[in-house]
Amino acid sequence: MLLIYCPYCEEERSELEFRQAGDAHIARPTNITELTDEEFEAFFFLRDNVKGLTYERWRHLNGCGRFFNAARDTVSDKFVTTYKAGLPKPDISTLRPATEATVETYEATESNAK
Amino acid sequence: MRKYSVFAVAREAMRGHRGWEAQWTSPEPRKEYDVIIIGAGGHGLGTAYYLAKEHGITNIAVLEKGWLGGGNTGRNTTIIRSNYLYDESAGIYDHALKLWDNLSQDLNYNVMYSARGVMMLSHNIHDQQVFKRHIHANRLNGIDNEWLTPEQAKEFCPPLDISRTARYPINGAALQRRGGTARHDAVAWGYARAAADRGVHIIQNCEVTGLRRHANGAIAGVETNRGYIGAKKVGVVAAGHTSVLMEMADVRMPLVSYPLQALVSEPVKPIFPCVVMSNTVHAYISQSDKGELVIGAGTDQYSSYSQTGGLQIITHTLDAICELFPIFRRMKMMRSWGGIVDVTPDRSPILAKTPVPGLYVNCGWGTGGFKATPGSANVFAHTIANDAPHRINAPFTLERFRTGRLIDEAAAAAVAH
């Protein structure tokens, strides 16, 4: 089970208290009635579904209830960092050692565990 | 290819089993193929098989990043059914179910399809209304599905606890008698053997790293870790990794990838005669021919490519199993694993042409693709061969997310997403 750091509660809590809430840093359209079908599709249905480092919104549902953003590796499930909603994307290169390769398998994840 | 038969078994028994040949060969890739299929799971291998058998195209390669059948084909709970709500879904899943019937004979390979019945438990009045609606819709589409009282459900599946005091009381069940299970590995192996026999190249440990295109945008071939391979047409059948591959052709997909887990118990003597699913408390269970209870859990709450999954997800499912079937409370679980499933917004698959000429995609099967393997492969082969969809998969386009003609099976899927 993952421990996730809530930037509002300022402590690590069990993953059970959190819910993923989609991609972060999306500018939602303010003129939704004027969008073409292509634009609406791109906003509403299409996803990058990134393999590797992704920026996403999470909600501390069974805690403070607030939304925050996280940078997470979707292959290892490792949270690189979490930060408050509204803040710009953090500079990941300062937080993550560049040498650490992402791992593909459960077995590799296990043997990598520190 | 030497046919498998009772005579072959007898002959080899006399000769110390020295005459069995390899089920498929592993040739060096050619410079170019008419069709390249990316992904050697059941759907991909089946597509190659039907292209060769029904459309006369044999210059085909099936490329696989890992080993054959090592993705979701080898990681699912092997449940087969076709009792979906909408006409479009009923069409494609029942097409598959009809092909399952004769698949072993067709492939000359025992896929161990067993129509032992799939029973979906109803726990409350809402379940009952939804299931009865499904039953009526299924009957209009000529698909068998019937309502059982709790007593009839108990008769069909004796280990079931239908007592009033049960933690999850049961007020009935929907039963599709033609539903059942099949041996998942044998499906991949059987299609691989039959396809290879017709000249299809199956190339394992060959990861696609890029899609090359002509100046006019049409597909030219694939870059792999074993070099460039040209292709007139490319079919992407890569389940959870579809988004990654389609991004190489600049196509954004309406997909999110999640881990989905399953687990098996220690093997025991035959105790469980059918497949039982409960959407409401989230459990699926059947018994394999080896004797293991095969149990399916839900998807994780967050997207991931990790091929593992949270322990709390499978313990949640085991809680439900132990309440529904108290006799299993002291069973030991032997293995658990995860696969990466690609989920669409309407929980229906995409089998279609793409905006890139010569590039086709078969994806979005989410948590329930195994049951559709033969039907999906069959109509996808038609789509590639004719550059136009089969009548059955015509509604399962990529464009439906623009036009709004969704096939909203969220309620019919086994998983309460």
UniProtKB/TrEMBL annotation, chain A:
Organism (species): Rhizobium herbae
Gene3D superfamilies membership: Folate-binding superfamily
Pfam family, one: SoxD
The protein's name in its UniProt record: Sarcosine oxidase subunit delta
From TrEMBL, chain B:
SUPFAM superfamilies with a match to the protein in the record: FAD-linked reductases, C-terminal domain, FAD/NAD(P)-binding domain
Cofactors that this protein relies on: FMN; FAD
Originating organism: Rhizobium herbae
Pfam families: DAO
PROSITE patterns per the UniProt record, alphabetical: RHODANESE_3
Catalytic reaction(s) noted: sarcosine + (6S)-5,6,7,8-tetrahydrofolate + O2 = (6R)-5,10-methylene-5,6,7,8-tetrahydrofolate + glycine + H2O2; sarcosine + O2 + H2O = formaldehyde + glycine + H2O2
Family indicated by similarity: Belongs to the SoxB family.
Domain Rhodanese residues, every copy: 35-79
UniProt-listed Gene3D superfamilies: D-Amino Acid Oxidase, subunit A, domain 2, FAD/NAD(P)-binding domain
Cellular localization per UniProt: Cytoplasm
InterPro entries: FAD-dep_OxRdtase (IPR006076), FAD/NAD-bd_sf (IPR036188), Rhodanese-like_dom (IPR001763), SoxB (IPR006278)
High-level lineage: Bacteria, Pseudomonadati, Pseudomonadota, Alphaproteobacteria, Hyphomicrobiales
Signal sequence segment: none
The protein, known as: Sarcosine oxidase subunit beta
Keyword Nucleotide-binding appears in the UniProt entry: yes
Keywords: Cytoplasm, FAD, Flavoprotein, FMN, Nucleotide-binding, Oxidoreductase
Top-rank EC class of the record's enzyme: oxidoreductase
Record EC number: 1.5.3.24
